[in-house]
Amino acid sequence: MSTLAVDQAESLRRMLAPRVTRRIAVVASEPGAGATTIASGLAHALSMQGERVLLVDEDTAGHAVRLSGAEPAGTLADVQAGRLTLEAALGARPAGAVAVLPAGPARPRGAQSPDSLSGFRSVLLDAVTDADGALSALAGAAHNVLVVMRPEPASITAAYACIKRLHHLYACRHFHLLVNMAASEAAVLAIAGNLARTARQYLGVEISSAGWLPADPLVARSVQLGRCVVEAYPAAPATIALRQAASGIGAWPLRAEPAAPAAQAAVAA
């Protein structure tokens, strides 16, 4: 089936599905894993399927904002605090473009206002963990956690440690895994299968493969141009892989709204 046919079928299925603003936290197993590339690419790919998408950039360096070409006039923190409306914070942008906002200053622990994002079908967070490995309040309450890793021993170890930490902090029972800069699908299946078996046996959690990105030089080229690879190179191998990964997101199970992390709950008590 062609990519266009897949996108059309996915768009129809999404229109018929119950209305839910899906929040996805995209988390790097370790620095350099490529979480920003994945978050930005999936946001653009979902937009191509007809979704209204918001990409939230939690990195203070603002890499996701720059890759999108967005020029937001405010932050998500401004919207949540009532200082700006969502549309005012987003600023001017071309029709149909992915909406992108920097997260802005962190809100108090446990504070979250997902209702302000209900106008979007999907909200992707280029998530950043703190010194203790915890996520922001909004990312910690995401419906899905996507862990991005590379096919290297150190990254595999880091991915397992990341999953273990987030499981203990947020009681996550299901994670999605995307392998970046992979050589082949067979290698990805082997990595994902081994991690899934280990996590099931020792943590009691499920890991599902969300796909993989090949080692595509056009990704680096698009970063040099300050653009997302999906938008800059529609026929690139990485773009095709991102669109395939995005087409499966609608079938991901929605996690119930979680409570605050154990460490936060203890403080609140």
Helix share, percent: 40-55%
According to CATH, the homologous superfamily is: P-loop containing nucleotide triphosphate hydrolases
Number of helices: 12
Secondary-structure element series: HEHEHHHEEHEHEHEHHHH
What characteristic shape results from the CA principal axes? globular
Return the average pLDDT rounded to an integer: 87
| SS elements, strand count | 7
Any guess at the CATH architecture? Answer: 3-Layer(aba) Sandwich
Strand content: 15-25%
CATH class: Alpha Beta
Could you give a short description of this structure?
This protein has 269 residues and is α/β, with parallel strands linked by helices.
List keywords for this structure.
12 helices, 269 residues, alpha/beta, Rossmann fold, disordered C terminus
